[in-house]
Amino acid sequence: MAQINENFLKLKAGYLFPEIGRRVSKFCSGHPDANVIRLGIGDVTEPLPTAIQEAMHSAVDELGDRASFRGYGPEQGYDFLRNAIVENDYQARGVDVSADEVFVSDGSKCDSGNILDIFGPDNVVAVLDPVYPVYVDTNVMAGRTGNADESGRFAGLVYLPVTAENDFLPPLPDRPVDLIYLCYPNNPTGTVATRETLAQWVNYARDNNAILLFDAAYEAYITDPEIPHSIFEIDGAREVAIEFRSFSKNAGFTGVRCAFTVVPKELTGQTSTGESVEIQPLWNRRQSTKFNGASYVVQRGAEAAYGEAGKQQIRQLIDFYLKNAEILREGLQAVGIEVYGGVNAPYVWLKTPDSMASWDFFDRLLEQAHLVGTPGSGFGASGEGYFRLSAFNSRENIEEAVSRLKANIG
Ligand code: MLT
Question: What span, in angstroms and rounded, lies between the C-alpha atoms of 247 and 302?
């Protein structure tokens, strides 16, 4: 009889967003006429920028012609895209990254889970709490944890609470850890990390031989010029960090799928006998073996994100979603709700009224206002009593959501 990976059985509930989808579908089937507005999962709603559409159309035409047809591409991504990434996302900010340190993929969610293939089973992992659930669940699947307690915290993981009480500044771990997930601008709280905060993490990692897994999927939403967009803007980060980036939330690729991971050549880990090993060749080997590259059409689309027209159109998209976030923030504040985030990020994080439990507030909003958000406790025990609203929606829906919020809370 084939045996299963029993670590999966430790994951009691379903993944957060399908669970929300299940509850919403149930509500909708009982209320077929309800106009439900979804501000739950952070999924973009606006069409692809025209510069990207055009690039993808012409890539399809190339593939339709024998003379320009292409089969398998490089597993690491085409040079045209890797070079555009280096030039625009890094060199333009004075950051030293080379094209062979950039690995193009079909998503940051996959990359942040897949990266665990190259790390040993005994690493101690630290996550912020609340946290993007993928970081936790993939470590559970990989066997790096024990069971979850009543609050959903897994034995063996080190949780770093981020709440209004500590200004959403994670404390440094109180015991030795090897891998630390950081996500800035933060999902779910929408808060950002200053240069000083990031430098503190880089120094921590250097002093403790730890590696930072830095998720910068929302960097394009940073409006404050003092806030770093990349962990590699911090001196010394090349020796201790891996960075994940995505085209999902800036260029609208949640359905198209394209992302990349930067693994600097200076980054090393250790064998169990203490021998130092470079990480970049391990990730290269993993990708070449298990991945055949993102599609050519998609990579041409991603390349167009860096053209003059693409940049301008993406800026408009981001400004549009940021304006949505502002409308949400102001609407909530007008009815006395405490809100965080939503200034350098597309997520607004709020304290539930009267300290309601997050899932109770979810049910109340769905039933009374036909609005969907994400319960803070779904992101971790320290998210209890909080709630996330996503700014990814049409302006009409955001304005309607605010008037329903005003009518139903306050
Ligand atoms: C979210 O809503 O947290 C994100 O959409 C999830 C993701 O990017 O995978």
Answer: 7
Cis amide prior to 161 (ω within 30 degrees): no
What CA–CA distance (Å, rounded) separates 194 from 169?
A: 10
Ligand 1: residue whose CA is nearest its atom 9: 109
314 — pLDDT class (breaks 50, 70, 90): very high
- Which atom in ligand 1 lies closest to the alpha carbon of residue 254? 8
From 20, 132, 215, 256, the mutation candidate for ligand 1 (largest count of ligand atoms within 8 A of CB) is 132
Q: Whose CA is nearest to atom 1 of ligand 1?
A: 42
Instruction: Using pLDDT thresholds of 50, 70 and 90, give the confidence band for residue 367.
Output: very high
Region 235-246: mean pLDDT is 98
Yes or no: say if 377 and 352 are a contact pair by the CB < 8 Å rule.
no
Domains and CATH numbers, the chain: 9-47+310-408 (3.90.1150.10), 53-308 (3.40.640.10)
Q: Which atom of ligand 1 is found nearest the CA of 132?
A: 3
Instruction: Give the Å distance between the CA of 359 and the centre of ligand 1.
Output: 18
Identity (one letter) of the amino acid at 90? Answer: Y
Q: Which atom of ligand 1 is nearest to the CA of 217?
A: 8
How far is it, in rounded angstroms, from Cα 131 to Cα 380? 6
Helix (H) or strand (E) holding 19: helix 16-30
- Average pLDDT score over residue span 373-402: 97
